[in-house]
């Protein structure tokens, strides 16, 4: 994908960008320039210099080229070992992620009911999320039927948490549109922040890992980030509740 002669002109920091891209190309195509820089351990300026040395006008053109390369060569990179998960956890060790979790919890905090929905493995995690949130005292239900009837009365004072790796699952998009029509707040947890689901949502919690499809159909993308995000939001709800209780206590 990259010219060998041009690669020979890279300095150490620029080579770090190249090495990270080669190992994580399936995830990089969904990353912002800041996320790639942080994961590569360099500045955004270094990423832009890398783009220029590879003859790309900017980061957007680099990502477009990577997507074209993957589609043209039907490239399938299957991460193994702990590196992929460690990279994810490294990427979220910042105030921005903590604030995102806090904002998601704020959306859910005053809701009387939370609905979870997903298809396939995301559906299994939706069931887990509903149970986990119920454990922390938030009344939650899992919807496993894409044709489940949604009404205004049902979703009043509710939040829907929709899970989809691609953000383009037809059944989940159908549910998302029903929730939107009936004015229910929608939070999406997806690997694709530019997806249709993300655009339908009131709030997005994105994550970046290599998306892996077998025979262009069977998704074996890791769901570890989704579990961590769900548990982080749930635990934040507990912290917020304890904080509210402590403010109402009078010490004599």
Q: Descriptors for this entry?
A:
five-stranded parallel beta sheet; single chain; 12 helices; 252 residues; two-stranded antiparallel sheet; alpha/beta
Query: If helices are DSSP runs of H or I spanning 4 or more residues, what is the number of helices?
Result: 12
Secondary structural class: alpha/beta
Based on CA atoms alone, the radius of gyration comes out at: 20 Å
Q: Which oligomeric state applies?
A: single chain
Unreliable segments (pLDDT under 50, ≥5 consecutive)? 248-252
Organism: Pantoea endophytica
InterPro entries: Homeodomain-like_sf, HTH_RpiR, RpiR-like, RpiR-like_SIS, SIS_dom, SIS_dom_sf, WH-like_DNA-bd_sf
Protein name: Transcriptional regulator
Pfam families: HTH_6, SIS
Note down, in words, how this protein is organized:
Pfam families: HTH_6, SIS. With 252 residues, this protein is an alpha/beta fold. Helix content is 55%, strand content 12%. The protein contains twelve helices and seven strands. It has helices at 4-7, 12-28, 33-40, 44-53, 59-73, 83-91, 95-109, 121-135, 152-155, 170-181, 196-200, 224-247; strands spanning 113-118, 140-143, 158-164, 185-190, 203-206, 213-214, 218-219. A five-stranded parallel sheet has the order 2-1-3-4-5, sandwiched between helices. Strands 6-7 form a two-stranded antiparallel sheet. The longest helix has 24 residues, at 224-247. Mean pLDDT is 85; it is low at 248-252.
């Amino acid at each position: 994908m990259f010219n060998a002669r041009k690669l020979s002109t890279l300095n150490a920091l620029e080579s770090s960008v190249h090495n990270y891209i080669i190992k994580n190309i399936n995830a990089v195509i969904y990353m912002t320039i800041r996320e790639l820089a942080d994961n590569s351990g360099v500045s955004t300026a270094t990423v832009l210099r890398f783009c220029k040395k590879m003859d790309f006008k900017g980061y957007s053109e680099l990502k477009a080229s990577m997507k074209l390369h993957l589609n043209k060569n039907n490239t399938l990179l299957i991460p193994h070992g702990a590196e992929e998960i460690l990279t994810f956890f490294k990427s979220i060790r910042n105030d921005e992620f903590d604030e995102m979790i806090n904002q998601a919890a704020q959306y859910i905090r005053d809701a009387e009911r939370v609905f979870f929905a997903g298809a396939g493995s995301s559906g299994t995690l939706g069931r887990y999320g509903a149970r986990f949130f119920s454990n922390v005292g938030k009344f939650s239900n899992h919807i496993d039927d894409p044709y489940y009837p949604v009404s205004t009365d049902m979703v009043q004072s509710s939040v829907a948490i929709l899970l989809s790796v691609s953000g383009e699952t037809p059944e989940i998009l159908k549910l998302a549109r029903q929730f939107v029509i009936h004015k229910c707040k929608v939070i999406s947890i997806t690997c694709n922040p530019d997806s249709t689901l993300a655009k339908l949502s009131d709030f997005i919690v994105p994550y970046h890992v290599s998306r892996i499809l077998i025979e262009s159909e069977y998704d074996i993308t890791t769901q570890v980030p989704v579990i961590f995000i769900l548990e982080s939001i749930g635990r934040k709800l507990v912290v917020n509740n304890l904080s509210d209780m402590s403010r109402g206590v009078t010490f004599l």
